[in-house]
Each structure stands twice: as C-alpha cells, then as structure tokens.
Write a structure and sequence with these properties.
- It is built from 22 helices and 16 strands.
- The protein is of the alpha/beta class and about 500 residues long.
- α2 runs parallel beside α3 and α15 crosses α17 (about 375-390).
- The radius of gyration is 23 Å and the shape is globular.
- The structure holds adenosine-5'-triphosphate (ATP) and magnesium ion.
- Magnesium ion binds near residues 191, 192, 255 and 295.
C-alpha cells in the first residue's frame, strides 16, 4: 500500500474492519492492530504509539472505558475515532477523543489531525530540546523562536515586525465576536496556522474543520458544506451531515475561498447573514453557531473586479482581515534565519540527524535571505529538509542550500530544448506544470486540461512543488503581492 505523504512513526488501530486497518497502514510507519479494546491496552503500553485509531463501532462506552483504564499512560497520546459519515461525534469528543473521522476514507481530516499532532509535538520539542544555540532555561528556548506564548502554542515562529503585527491582530480578532474572519496571504505564509491559532484562543475545546474550496466540484462542495438528506440527488442513499453542522460551536475554515463557485458564494452569504441553513434537499432550518473563517492566496478585490467573486460576499468577509506578509518582504525577512534554524531543530524528515546537523553557516543564511521565496515558509521548510537529508557534517553550508532549480528563461523553451536541470521525474513534472501554467497565463482550468489532469490535482501539484509566478517573469494580476494584500486589507 502506498503511504500517504504525512505519516506518523507508530500507530495502534483498534478495529476488526480491514478498511480501517488499511487507513492505519496508510498513515503509520509501524502499525499495531488490536481486534478489540480489551487487547488494545497491552499493545498501547508496550509500543508507546504516536496515535491511536479507535473504531466507533465499539461504541462510546468502550471508548471511555479504554481511556479510563489507560489513564495517565496515554494522557499524551491522541486518540482519534474512526466514525461514519453521519458524524455522530459528540459523545466521543466529550469522552476525550482528539478528533473524529467521517469514515475510513476521510483522508483530509486525518491529514489535518496529523499536522495538528506534529505542530503540538514540535512546540513541545522546541521547548524541551537542549540544543547548542539555545539558552539553558526552557522559557528562553521557547522565546528564541516564538514571540510569545500564543505563538509557541501553535508553533508560529517569528519575531519580525510583520509577525508581531499579525500576532496582535490574531489576538484582537480572536477576542472579539468578529465572524466571519478573513485570512489572506500568499501560498505558504501560514494562513492555516493562523486559523488554528484563532480557533485555539476562541474555542479550544470545539471542533476545527476545514475544506479546500478548490479541491471539490460545485455539487460536492455544496453537499460537503451543507450536508444532504437521503434522496436529494442520485446517489444520496442516506443523510449526510455537512461541515457547517459538524463544526458545531467551533470553527469552519473555507480554504481558497476565491475558488468557490459563484452560486455557492450566494448560499454562503445567506448563511453568514441569517446564521442558519438547510441541507441539500432538506426543509428544516439548522442553526449555524460556528466561527466561519475564509482564507485566500488571491487578491479578492481583483477577483471581485474580474466578476469572479461576489462583491457583497467580499465586503461581508473583509471586516478585519488578517494579512500575512510574504517571507521576502522587508518586514518579514528577519524571520528567515529563525525559521531555518527552527526547521533544523524540529524536522521529522530524518530524526537521527536532528542532533547531528545543528546549524547553518553564515553564507548559507545569507543565501537564504537573498532568495525570493515564492512558496514562502513551506518552501523554506522544504529547502531546509532537503539540505538536512544531504548533509554529512554538523553544519549546512552554501552548497547544501538547493533553491528552486527552475528559471523563467527555460520555462518558455520547448520540451525538447534541453535536459532538465537536476534530471528527475519530479523535476520534469514540476517543469511541465510550470510551463503549462505560464502558457495559459495561469488559468488553472486550461492548464489542467493541457496537462490532462483535474484542477484539484493541479492545485495539489502546484502546492507540492511550490510553483508560483516568479517575480521576474509573470507576476500577474491575480497573485497577491505585498502591496496588493495591504490594499485588500484596507479597502
Ligand atoms: N510562522 C510559522 N512558523 C512555523 N511554521 C510555519 C509558519 N508559517 C507557516 N509555517 C509552516 O509552513 C507550512 C505552510 O503553512 P500553512 O499551510 O499554514 O500555509 P497557507 O498560507 O495555508 O498555505 P496555502 O495557501 O498554500 O494553503 C506549514 O507546514 C506550516 O506549519
Ligand atoms: Mg492553507
């Protein structure tokens, strides 16, 4: 079975169901199975897992009993319930479940849970590690990377003026009743981290659910958001609870809101105004108590001007937007060194090297600070992880820093024009995608058609390879630049 990109070293799965076992295989390096909760305890004690998956069919009673029996021994181990699509999660969450999956194919939620676990353990590690460059006292160590406690609790590294002002804004917005909340910034600037930070401040014990508006077709997105009743359309063979309802009194994050189809934008606006909604095909009004957050890496104002985004929805969302500056902007550049050192300390790409490769040379840091970072913090993390993987000494030098190998000149050449630098399948794929996007003026639907892939796959690849319109070649009207972001925030 192909492993998912995100996985955890050790996972215990309590189930009799082969599909749920497969889910565990997908996300665990080592997976230990228990047929029922009574067997699970011994296994958990022996293997000390990073995550426990629990089949909802054993029921909330047995779940509660397992947690009580295991007591302190699993106090720090997240237990996630693999449920069904009806999403009857409340009893499990009340009993102490870390998260709830809607079925054993709910990979999106599983990945969000894993990244939450990683963020939390990174913060703990950053607090606890005795490294060469940190001070002796744990508070000072945390203080090295994080501007303050809130930043530490969500692993938000940075002390630049831009980061300080984002943190101030996060606290203001979280402490207010502002709803909806808009978070804007280029790809990889940390919009999801910010959403989680606000969620943790506002309602830490409630559900955080997120959906990527670019990844689903209009019909699927509608039914994902609102849910549907049995018989609402062909294939709707049972009722489905939508994310608006699943979020409860917590948070629903609408990622890449600019990609939401216009019809659905109108329906969302109605929810924001009336604070209730109906399932697809349903007649009952359901109250929406969640905080709705929306994130965008496009300039929504330009989308409005291009008639791709509803003006009324834009004004409804743009009350106190949180604007994240790109890494290359002068107000955020100070964070590059700090982030690079943080990723060096906390990367899970090769844990055995974490204590061996401990620093970067001054030249390497200078090189990082000169780069444009179109993929922002995500790209920086990838560069540091790549360097760690290859490094054989204790210090990453200039030669270890491999920045984006694709340049604009080559992007316009024909595929036969020469060998792709750093010849590999991944590089070839990246370059073809970059070319298709350039040729189509970054019209993603056309680029996806040209490449023979779906739009969702194209989005995933663009993110995976950190492909962005380069500052030198084609910074077009729809990509956010620092100044256009500020414009979005102030209008
Ligand atoms: N200030 C930060 N400190 C530490 N890590 C960060 C910071 N900002 C972003 N990251 C990391 O960079 C990666 C990208 O962050 P995130 O997913 O929040 O970005 P995004 O703005 O939502 O990106 P996209 O628009 O592509 O969805 C994540 O691994 C995140 O943990
Ligand atoms: Mg995001």
């Amino acid at each position: 079975m192909a492993k998912a990109r995100m996985n955890l070293p050790r996972l215990v799965v309590v189930t009799k169901d082969p599909d749920t076992q497969r889910l565990a295989q997908r996300y665990g390096e080592e997976v230990f199975g228990a047929d029922d909760p009574s067997d699970a305890l011994d296994i958990i004690r022996t293997v000390n897992p990073d995550l426990i998956l629990f089949d909802y069919r054993f029921g909330p009673g047995q779940f509660d009993e397992l947690l009580v029996k295991a007591g302190q021994e699993i106090a720090n181990v997240p237990v996630v319930v693999v449920g069904d699509e009806s999403g009857a999660s409340a009893e499990f969450l009340e009993a102490g479940a870390f998260g709830y999956l809607q079925g054993n194919k709910d990979f999106g939620q599983m990945e969000r849970i894993i990244s939450r676990i990683e963020n939390e353990s990174n913060a703990i590690r950053a607090n606890q590690s005795q490294d060469t460059f940190s001070a002796a006292c744990p508070e000072e160590q945390a203080g090295r990377f994080f501007a303050e406690e809130l930043a530490c609790s969500v692993s938000m590294v940075g002390k630049s003026s831009a980061m300080l002002s984002s943190l101030r804004m996060i606290k203001l917005v979280a402490g207010s009743r502002c709803n909806p909340i808009l978070i804007v910034g280029e790809t990889g600037t940390g919009k999801e981290l910010v959403a989680r930070a606000i969620h943790n401040l506002r309602h830490p014990n409630e559900q955080f659910v997120a959906v990527n508006c670019a990844a689903l077709t209009a019909t699927l997105l509608e039914s994902e958001l609102f849910g549907h009743v049995k018989g609402a359309f062909t294939g709707a063979d049972r009722d489905k609870t939508g994310l608006l309802e699943l979020a409860g009194c917590g948070t629903l994050l609408l990622d890449e809101i600019s990609e939401m189809p216009v019809d659905l934008q109108a329906k969302l606006l109605r929810v924001l105004q009336e604070r209730n909604f109906r399932k697809v095909g349903g007649v009952k009004n359901i109250k929406c108590k969640a905080t709705i957050m929306a994130s965008s890496n496009r300039n929504l104002k330009s989308e409005v001007d291009g008639n791709r985004f509803r003006r009324d929805l834009y004004y409804r969302l743009n009350i106190s937007p949180i604007v994240l500056a790109p890494l290359r902007s002068p107000e955020r550049k100070d964070d590059i060194k700090l982030l690079a050192e943080y990723f060096l300390r906390t990367s899970s790409i090769c844990p055995e090297k974490r204590d061996k490769v401990t620093s970067l040379t001054k030249l390497a840091i200078k090189n990082l600070e000169k780069h444009d970072w179109p993929g922002n913090v995500r790209e920086l993390r990838n560069v540091i992880e790549r360097a760690m993987l290859l490094e054989t000494t204790d210090k990453i030098g200039l030669s270890g820093i491999v920045l984006d190998p694709t340049d604009c000149g080559r992007a316009s050449e024909s595929p036969a024009a020469g060998l792709i630098k750093g010849f590999s399948l991944a590089n070839a794929e990246r370059e073809l995608i970059a070319r298709a996007l350039k040729e189509t003026g970054w019209q993603k639907t056309r680029a996806a058609a040209l490449l023979g892939i779906t739009r969702a796959t194209l989005y995933a690849k663009v993110k995976q390879y950190n492909i962005a319109k380069d500052a030198h070649c084609a910074r077009g009207t729809d990509e956010l630049s620092a100044s256009s972001l500020h414009e979005a925030a102030t209008c």
